[in-house]
Amino acid sequence: MLRPPAPHPDDVRRSRLLARLDAVREPVIVVAAPRGAGKTVLLAQWVDPERCAWVSLSSHDDSPAGVWSAILESLRPYGAEVAVRPAALLDDQTTLFTEIIPELLNALVSAAPLVLVLDRLDVIDHPVTRATLEELVRRIPDHIRIVLSTARPPSGPVAALRAAGRLAEFDEDDLRLDPAETRQLLATVARRPVSLAEASAVRDEYDGWATGVRLAGVALRDQPSGARLPHPLRSVEDFFRAEVLECVTSRQRRLLLHSSVLAELTPDRCAEVTGIAEAGQALAALAATSLLLRRTGPRLTCHPALRRVLGSVLSAEQPDLVPVLHARAAERLRRDGDPGAAYEHARLAGLPDLAMRAAVEAWPEAAPRTLLARIDRLPAAGAEADAIAAAAAAELACGNPGRASARLAAVDADAALDARAAAGAAAAPSDRPALAVRAWLALHHGDLAAAQTDATRAIGPYRLDQTGPWWLTLADAALGTALVWDGQPAGAVARLATAARQAATAGYQDAAVRALDARTAALLLTGEPAAAFASASAAVTMHEREPDRSVPPVIAHAYLAATAGASQVAIPWTAGDALDPPPPHAEAFASLLLADACTARGDARQARCIRAQARAALARLPPGPTLAALLDGQRAGGMLDVRPTALSDRERAVLRALSGPLTLREIAAELHVSHNTVKTQVRSVFRKLGAHDRADAVARAATTAAQPAAPAAPPGPPGPPGAQPPGGLDQPTRAQLVRASCRRA
To answer: What's the rounded Cα separation, in Å, for the pair 137 and 151?
Structure first.
């Protein structure tokens, strides 16, 4: 065909792509996408029929004479006339390179600007034809636009043209229908309104593939709104049978069908799963001839619509082979270190034991809810101890200690562990994961002695610096946390740091957050507020990055809130109603941090209320030596250092007033507050600046103001105590602006 195809009434105008094509200035355009992606429709909408030479290539006329006679004939009306040559000369490679192509290029130099479209270039396999076309593309004049539409990976001079800046490319991602185009095409073809939900489902089903969406629209014509279409559609299956399965060799067909169980294709995996020794060669041949196999790095993926069709055909033709292929895939993927994919294959193969092992191997890198969903889809009977413990640990990470306890109790794990402990038997390897979980459940119940016992039994012969399985980091974090509340914070700092580091390395975010949270408390208790701030910041950042993988760090949140100098201090663990309360000792310690912040701010009433909440959290529980001393006010050194580092607006006004001659009563009158309020604010200013008296506070503020401004830092949590300058005084005018600044405040 030597002209663009006529538009179809159902075609959707691709405005966004047409605008991109209009903006192209390169002489060569390659449009490479799978068959049915809408390449021909797009180009037919874009070209001007009056200035377009269009050649639709055909596999039935792949000879040089057939292709070149069509090209020369399409260009003749636009002044690119070349002497008519017999077919025998057009089939001669030497004549094409030395006479015909040079004559055509010379004619095009003097021709007016036009577009030459070579549609369906992928059907051309004749080596002479491809070589001569590459010569034409390489030497095309800049004012002539040549468009190559292909369904196979582009080759030839593409790399050289790209490097020379003479190539514009449109691929499958560009041609994929967006949500609006999908809905418009569906509604046009279905001849009825289409909801957003229907359009979204169809787009996801076919990955924006235009032909799949069009065929889905045909199927929707007789369906009520909201009806679910079968997948794959019979019409889609027929399309791929004709365009793919009937166009490949028998070995390639077998490879496609048997490897359809795999999401990612590599020569080794395909050879092992399908049993085809030459799988690598067949896979390479398929990838070179079709964009329905997408290359992602060293691996290939099959177009999702084609993969569903292949699975349907395989199930119809060889149903007994499907579970065998899935079992092979499960074993191979387990060896490749992909237990998540191995789980799905094992489940589809009807091998629950293998699926359960794969699910446990994926923990803790798998998201907690993902692990729970996988385990709950398998038969509960016969579940091994490590699977039960992993599920309980996932419940802990979801903030559900009650459900974690129920999972252990459902199989009498607690009773078995207690019986072996009573008999004096050492913890067996299969007991250790459950013991690590039980240690944290004991902390949630406020039982420090049980937490230390279970954590110690779980750790057993492991050394502190020894890298181990997931439950070892959980047990280390539990033991370190129990030591903090048992009056041994100094001995817990190193253990908690190691547990946090190893948990983060293993991808066990919940254990890492728990360890960092407890370490924040330990560092505060040992008088290291800067290190505590860093630990708290790391815990909060880690949780906020993926909040579904860990519980909120209550101590870290409270400490950051206390040091931020917020005007209102909220209880951070009451925001999520779906979460169970945090461990009572952590809740009480966090409450004390917030109470100290209120005291530092001069809000004694709120401080008393929050301290009462700390006592309530430990009601009917032994608080342990650490919290007992804090609750009774007997801890050496006084309050925890949770002073805000930045002055509030009112404190800045008071500080400016202190630099002048006003007395505290006069400052109170200017600010319209009581004398006691001003005295409280002055004490707060002294604390934040580390000053001893009025003159010292003014001097420290003036020194801070005289320092050059630091470069702007990216937004993030507030720095450690003393890291943020509280603001200084306006030295040249401070005497004159004392009263004005008071009034502004």
So the answer is: 18
Task: Report the DSSP beta bridge partners of residue 480.
Answer: none
Tokens 């101890």 -> residue:
385
The Cβ-side half-sphere exposure at 90, using a 13 Å CA radius, reads 20
Short-list 614, 581, 618, CA closest to 599 = 614
Q: Which two tokens stand for residue 256?
A: 């496609």
Backbone angles phi, psi at 373, to 5 degrees: -65, -40
| Other Cβ atoms closer than 10 A to 144 | 21
User: Burial of 289 by CB count in 10 Å (0-12 exposed, 13-18 middle, 19+ buried)?
Assistant: middle
Tokens at residue 558, please? Answer: 């409270």
Angle at 397 between CA 471 and CA 450, to 5 degrees: 55
Quickly list DSSP for 463-514. -TT----HHHHHHHHHHHHHHHHTT-HHHHHHHHHHHHHHHHHTT-HHHHHH
Contacts of 211 (CB under 8 A, 6+ apart): 35, 36, 37, 38, 236, 239
Task: Identify which of 26-35, 81-90, 292-301 has the greatest average pLDDT.
Answer: 26-35
The whole-angstrom separation of Cα 648 and Cα 553 is 26
Model confidence pLDDT, tens digit, residues 613-631 = 888 888 888 888 999 888 8
The pTM score is: 0.70
What phi and psi, each to the nearest 5 degrees, are found at residue 139?
-110, 10
List strands edge to edge, sheet with 114-119. 52-56, 114-119, 144-150, 28-32, 167-170
Query: Cβ distance 555 to 517 under 8 Å?
Result: yes
Q: How far apart are CA 100 and CA 104, in angstroms?
A: 6
- Give the separation between CA 697 and CA 744, rounded to whole angstroms: 21
Pairing outcome for strands 293-296 and 299-302: antiparallel
Cα distance between residue 300 and residue 117, in whole Å: 30
> Which pair of tokens denotes residue 523?
């560092």
How is residue 271 written in tokens?
């050879």
Q: Is 555 exposed, middle or buried (0-12, 13-18, 19+ CB in 10 A)?
A: buried
Residue 548's CB is within 10 A of a number of other CB atoms, namely 12
List beta partners, residue 167.
Answer: 28
What separation in angstroms does the CA of 40 have from each of 32, 53, 689?
A: 11, 14, 73
Q: Which residues of 441-467 are buried (b: 16+ CB within 10 A; e: fewer)?
A: bbbbebbbebbbbbbbbbbbeeeeeee
Distance CA 710, CA 616 (A): 44
Q: How would residue 744 be classed by pLDDT, with cut points 50, 70 and 90?
A: very low
